[in-house]
């Protein structure tokens, strides 16, 4: 019964406002009588709710999501740095973590031009076609990187990179520079700059800012993102280590980002 109930909850997808009973039957592949009976049980526990002639996710799920450790810890610690990044750019800011071969967005601050972006808090995207995902992948262990490079890459838009060799070179460059770049690989008309949040050399998260391609100015965006990522990394480190590494970390922020090759590649 638990598995069948989960199938009902997982039938809801990004963009769904509500689903009719027939929609749930079609997406779960279960008999209508079973779906109806389990839906009533989920309603009792506020995991879904009835809205007119359809079902929607319930407030009980929202309350439970706030208890997830990553929300209480990383997300709350990161929020001031994400807010500073938003204030300096007025554009959409993301915080993501790696889960398997996907990036899961744990926080998002909507910018003034946030139209058509598929990202949402709790949503996931492939590591290989987002700036946040690439930053996480580049600083993942060798086993994770090889697992990604051993299979066909998913194409989200016509501009998504599906060249494994090119991706391998890009990951090496991200490890060397500390920046990840993406242009229309996840959403047409949008580009982003991302940086990993490194604690003891491990990317515990990544931060990005997403802008319309017409406003894609790498140096100022990269400096702002790097400042946020470094600030969060220092806050997440143990106090003694953060104090010891803070001056060195501050010096890693580049005064100027060399974008000549990227400018040629991105147009």
TrEMBL record:
DNA-binding in keyword set: yes
Keyword Transcription regulation in annotation: yes
Alphabetical list of Pfam families matching this protein: HTH_IclR, IclR_C
Molecular function GO terms recorded: DNA binding; DNA-binding transcription factor activity
Domain called HTH iclR-type: residue spans: 1-59
Start and end residues of each stretch annotated as Disordered: 244-267
Regions crossing the membrane: none
Record-level GO BP terms: negative regulation of DNA-templated transcription
Domain IclR-ED span(s) in chain numbering: 60-238
InterPro entries: GAF-like_dom_sf (IPR029016), HTH_MetabolicPath_Reg (IPR050707), Tscrpt_reg_IclR_C (IPR014757), Tscrpt_reg_IclR_N (IPR005471), WH-like_DNA-bd_sf (IPR036388), WH_DNA-bd_sf (IPR036390)
Matches recorded under SUPFAM superfamilies: GAF domain-like, Winged helix' DNA-binding domain
UniProt xrefs under Gene3D superfamilies: 3.30.450.40, Winged helix-like DNA-binding domain superfamily/Winged helix DNA-binding domain
Record's keyword terms, sorted: DNA-binding, Transcription, Transcription regulation
Descriptive protein name: IclR family transcriptional regulator
Species of the source: Aeromicrobium piscarium
């Amino acid at each position: 019964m638990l598995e069948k109930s989960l199938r009902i909850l997982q039938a809801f997808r990004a963009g769904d406002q509500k689903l009719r009973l027939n929609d749930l039957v079609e997406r779960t592949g279960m008999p209508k009588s079973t779906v109806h009976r389990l839906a009533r049980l989920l309603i009792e526990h506020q995991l879904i709710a009835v809205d007119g002639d359809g079902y929607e996710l319930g407030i009980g799920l929202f309350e439970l999501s706030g208890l997830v450790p990553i929300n209480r810890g990383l997300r709350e610690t990161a929020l001031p740095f994400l807010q500073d990044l938003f204030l300096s750019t007025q554009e959409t800011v993301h915080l993501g973590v790696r889960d398997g071969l996907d990036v899961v967005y744990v926080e998002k601050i909507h910018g003034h031009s946030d139209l058509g972006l598929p990202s949402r808090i709790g949503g996931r995207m492939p590591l290989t076609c987002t700036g946040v995902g690439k930053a996480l992948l580049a600083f993942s262990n060798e086993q994770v990187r090889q697992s990604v490079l051993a299979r066909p890459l998913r194409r989200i838009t016509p501009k998504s990179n599906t060249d494994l060799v090119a991706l391998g070179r890009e990951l090496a460059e991200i490890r060397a520079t500390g920046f990840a770049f993406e242009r229309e690989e996840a959403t047409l008309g949008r580009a982003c700059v991302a940086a990993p949040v490194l604690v003891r050399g491990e990317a515990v998260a990544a931060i990005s800012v997403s802008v319309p391609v017409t406003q894609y100015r790498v140096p100022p965006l990269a400096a702002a993102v790097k400042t946020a990522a470094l600030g969060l990394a220092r806050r997440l480190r143990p106090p003694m280590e953060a104090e010891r590494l803070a001056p060195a970390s501050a010096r890693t922020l580049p005064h100027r980002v060399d974008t000549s090759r990227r400018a040629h590649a991105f147009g």
